[in-house]
Design a protein that fits this description.
Order of helices and strands of chain A: EEEEEEEEEEE
Low-confidence stretches of chain A: none
Order of helices and strands of chain B: EEEEEEEEEEEE
Strand content of chain A: over 45%
Number of strands of chain B: 12
Radius of gyration of chain A: 13 Å
Mean pLDDT of chain A: 91
Distance between the termini of chain B: 41 Å
Low-confidence stretches of chain B: none
Structural class of chain B: mainly beta
Helix content of chain A: under 10%
Mean pLDDT of chain B: 93
Number of helices of chain B: 0
Oligomer: heterodimer
Largest interface: A-B, 22 and 23 residues
Structural class of chain A: mainly beta
Strand content of chain B: over 45%
Radius of gyration of chain B: 14 Å
Number of helices of chain A: 0
Chain lengths: 116, 114
Amino acid sequence: GAVVSQHPSRVICKSGTSVKIECRSLDFQATTMFWYRQFPKQSLMLMATSNEGSKATYEQGVEKDKFLINHASLTLSTLTVTSAHPEDSSFYICSASSWGDTDTQYFGPGTRLTVL
Amino acid sequence: GDSVTQMEGPVTLSEEAFLTINCTYTATGYPSLFWYVQYPGEGLQLLLKATKADDKGSNKGFEATYRKETTSFHLEKGSVQVSDSAVYFCALSDVEGGSYIPTFGRGTSLIVHP
């Protein structure tokens, strides 16, 4: 149980285009979903926290207009990187917590974004 | 704010060696504590957790005990295998504004040689 999927697993795009990443909780309803960016040498940066039907809460220093987060249902959250540039290239990971286990996060497999 | 500090890696061991990865935390509340593992090219997987003082989390031969007096949650395994090579993240989850908010350490890379 507690499986989270992400799609796509890898994406390559041209500079200036927008990319959407989906995060789904497959076998549970997610109270909260989180989006992370992982930098080289492991460091995991929390970008934002989202609850179904409400606006995401962004961490300090994360541009809301650049990283659009939509949490339309209890099983789906999307991250859209708008007007992507090479410096946005990174490994993006989502996680979700469930009603019955709110302190624990279950992670998706991650999405490798490369912006040319 | 809350923080998690874990030992820098990489930690390099021979197969069947004893493993300890140190983790200490600071928190304003009474957090739950976690260890997550990340294999190359993958997302993080929950390895074990503990929710209150003196609780011991265990899974796949790994153990960690919630020590409130020393604010620590060190990860141990008696005999590591090559397949344990991965990055290990210590984390806490504390209530903030009515929701659980996570805080992660920077991760410790473990390399196990045959």
